[in-house]
Every structure is written in C-alpha cells, then in structure tokens.
Amino acid sequence: MGMRRRARELALQLLYQHEHTKADLEVMQHDFDEWIGAAPEVREFADFLLRGTLAHLDELDAELARQTANWRLERLAAVDRNILRLAMFELIHEPDIPPPVVIDEAIEIAKKFGAEESGRFVNGVLDGFVRRRREAR
Questions:
Q1: So where are the chain's domains?
Q2: 122 contacts 83 by C-beta, under 8 angstroms
Q3: N or C of the chain: less Cβ packing under 10 Å?
Q4: What is the pLDDT of residues 60-83, one digit of tens each?
Q5: How crowded is the C-beta side of 107, counted as CA atoms within 13 Å?
Q6: Which of 12, 7, 10, 8 is nearest to 78 (CA)?
Q7: Is the separation of the CB atoms in 55 and 90 below 8 Å?
Q8: Please, which residues have CB within 8 angstroms of residue 47's CB and are 6 or more apart in sequence?
Q9: Which CATH superfamily does the domain covering 3-136 fall into?
Q10: Is this prediction's pTM over 0.90?
Q11: Rounded mean pLDDT of 112-128?
C-alpha cells in the first residue's frame, strides 16, 4: 500500500472518531497505535488531511449537501460521509493532485472501510461533484 493511501486511511479513521467523540486531535493521535506506528511522512500527510478537512468542514458539508440533494448528511453512512469529506477537501484544496487519483483512492478506501455499495456510491458522488465544478468554470 502506498504512503498516501495509508495516510488517507489514518485520516479517515481519526476523522470518523473525531465526529463521534469530539476528542482532541492530539489525544486521538497519541492513543491510536496505528498512528504511532506509521512512518513520519504518513503521519504528516494524514495530519494535513485531517486538519484541513476539519478546518473546511462547513464548506465541505455544504458541497456534499449540494451533491447529495436527495440525502440529508446525517442519513449518509458515517464512513461514506467522512470519505467524501476527505476527498472533497483534496479536490478543492489540493489542485496538484489529479481528480481521478483522488476519486480512485476514495473508492478503494470506501471498499475497504464501507458497506458493500460504498465504493459505487462514493464514485457517483465524487464524479458528479467534479463534473459540476468543471461545468461551473
């Protein structure tokens, strides 16, 4: 598994935990064995994704709500919702990472951590989001 995929997985796990517990990020990281055992560059990218996603959460949730017009955010599976938040953060705020790479990574993580249909759902939402942004330009 690549360094960035591992970082995205760690960021997802901590984002999910933070959503449910509102625990302090440093405490969560300190108490998470997988975080402690990860390479420094993995932790660095994961921390960047985690903090960036949380810093832009209102913006990301607004975009997510627009893209999933028939679903209230709280009705989305928590894993899927947080995968989408992370991917949208990258799509909006990391223009150097090609959208197909971000989408593929999100799909693979959804297949690993989500439900049976999560990969397809994440793909549909993110593909529609990228198309909508491209058309708006």
A1: 3-136
A2: yes
A3: C
A4: 999 999 999 878 898 999 999 999
A5: 14
A6: 12
A7: no
A8: 11, 29
A9: NusB-like (1.10.940.10)
A10: yes
A11: 97
**How far apart are alpha carbons 37 and 34 in whole angstroms?**
5
Q: Scanning the structure block, which residue is given the tokens 């593929």?
A: 104
- Token pair of 109 as six digits: 């993580």
Contacts of residue 135, Cβ cutoff 8 Å, sequence gap at least 6: none
Q: Is the dihedral of CA 94, 69, 135, 105 positive or negative?
A: positive
pLDDT mean over 16-37: 95
CA distance 55 to 44: 16
Pinpoint the alpha helices (H) of the chain: 3-21, 25-31, 33-37, 40-55, 57-67, 78-93, 99-113, 118-136
The one-letter amino acid at 131: R
Token reading at 12? 């997802």
Instruction: Using the structure block, give the residue that is written with the tokens 């959804």.
Output: 110
Residue 12 · residue 113 · CB < 8 Å: yes
What is the Cα 67 distance to its own chain's centre?
A: 15
Q: CA 43 to CA 91: how far, in whole Å?
A: 20
